[in-house]
Input
Amino acid sequence: MNVHEKLESFILDKVPSWMSKYKIPGFSIAVVEDDNVIFAEGFGARNVELNLPATPNTLYGVGSITKSFVAIGILQLVEKGLISLDDPANKYIPLKLGFEDAPITIHHLLTHSSGIPSLGTSTIALLRGIGLNIGIPFSSTEDFYRHINNAGSEVVCKPGIRFFYLNAGYRMLGHIIQKVSGISFHEYVDKNILKPIKMYRSTFSKEEFEKDPDRITPYRRGKNGKLIATDFPYPEVKLNPEFSFIAAAGGLISSVMELANYIKMNVNDGVFDDMRILGSDLIKSMRNIYVELPRRHFGRCGYGYGWRIIEDFFGEKMVVHGGSILVSTAFLGFIPSRRIGVAMASNIVGFPYEALAQAIFAILMGKKPESDLPLIKIMRKMELLTGRYESYRGLSKVDVVNRGGLLYLIQKSPFGEVTVPLIPEDDDLKTNRFYIWSNGVRQPVEFMIGENGKIDLFIERNRYHKV
Output
């Protein structure tokens, strides 16, 4: 098989399997190489009740992928000489947090290094959007800044020191775009980014989304995993254009095929179909690490302008961002030097996007995901270890389950149920050794995998056999 055949075979094998494992109703994907979409497909249902299929053109809420669009909008204003990245944010907006001798700048907001921890603005907006009103006023620009500026005691440090992912910061950037450009945030992005790269159906408008025939029904999980259909959670921006910037943290609606155009523009360093969206140096500046994030499996990891950066993915820089609005999720990533990228989306939370993205890039780079990617190997090991275990003659039973990427041990007895996390002793699960933390005591837990494939589990005095 050639590389593209290997890629297609891997996707067609893993996506349905993972959708089944993680209970994903609908999923769409598009893979880009150079200026071509080399694979695009929809899996499952965009609407379960009507059994309407997901397609590569299905519209999803892409969540925080929106942030790189905001960053481009800011840098377009920088390119025009209308603002500077070193400008204090309060030069344009009524932000009152921070220190007089070290003001929060536009650069700090772009890099989540303002020193302000999360203030829950997306929690308020998204829960209200799915009908769970928590009672905090959040319907206007004034409400927004009252919420922000009353949080002075929450500021942790001067800007530029620590990374705190701050959705409110990107909303403030959207407000700066609005103030400086003289038009509402959603209109600016539509006019200056979406339309020029032919993202004609992409929108911030809930009204336009609901008119489109190929759109998702968003879902959340209820008790026992039951799917509960919800509304699209972001408010209609056209009805309150002054507060349009509420959508800047994660309100974009798009399809993987239109996001493929966005990937093409990025790997072409700001150019799409001979139209320059942003200067090459400025768009490359978005991919620099300005704030360090916890190290992963491929060298340094950090945040740029609207992107997370993995510095050494088999010798290449990988640029990624995920997005979630609770009832719709997405992932976008690309490797600029290879001019390859992938866009994915689902109408629920829970799909292992980063593992699939890394596998796709690895295949296109001539690697073997099953043997070369730590994430894939970890997922396989966790799948191997999960299941029911029984002691001698079945006198004691325990279950090992995967919840959110962490293994848990569940023991049921006539006296009750105990659930504890299994903390791995090594990041890649190579040793098969874990521990339970109980009342300050570290209790070892070890899995032993025999040559015949049988697995035993040892906890203190007990030996269990996987059944």
